[in-house]
Design brief:
- This protein is mainly beta.
- It is 4% helix and 47% strand.
- The structure holds zinc ion.
- Zinc ion is lined by residues 37, 39, 41, 70, 72-73, 75.
- Residues 37, 39, 41, 70, 72-73, 75 line the site of zinc ion (ZN).
- Keywords: Metal-binding, Zinc.
């Protein structure tokens, strides 16, 4: 089991509080990324997870947000989102080159890589911002 915190950074000019539209725990905000299996196989397509979409885990204890089987080794892995850990990216943090935590993923069997910047962000006092934002997973 690996806990991966998705961290964001951005070049914020006259902007602050960059976050998903409904806040860091927006149930409808979709996260897109590729998954790397423990066997080293990288999934071909991006996976999409959101807090609103849950699946029952095997054995019926609790829920997860993604169950995916590796095409190469056949093992099943899960990704479970853990809300309540994210913070909007403030201008202060962005200016000091800092990253802000966005969402925590509890990954079993997989490691998330290559986060894809999707839609549905909001930022306060918009004048200009540059994309793409550097986004990293801290393992
Ligand atoms: Zn595999």
């Amino acid at each position: 089991m690996v806990n991966c915190m998705l961290m964001i950074s951005a070049d914020l000019e006259n902007l602050t509080n960059l976050q998903p539209q409904g806040g860091c725990d927006d149930p409808n905000f979709s996260y897109f990324f590729k998954l790397k299996c423990g066997c080293g196989e990288l999934s071909q397509k991006e996976t999409c997870v959101s807090l609103a979409e849950t699946l029952p885990t095997q054995g019926g204890k609790g829920t997860t947000n993604l169950i995916q089987k590796c095409k190469f080794c056949g093992r099943e892995g899960t990704v479970t989102m853990i809300p309540g850990r994210g913070k909007p990216l403030t201008q202060e943090a962005a200016q000091s080159g800092g990253f802000s935590p966005l969402m925590l993923f509890d990954c079993r069997g997989y490691e998330p890589v290559d986060f894809v910047f999707g839609v549905g962000w909001k930022v306060e006092s918009v004048s200009f911002y540059s994309c793409p934002f550097p986004i990293v997973f801290e393992h």
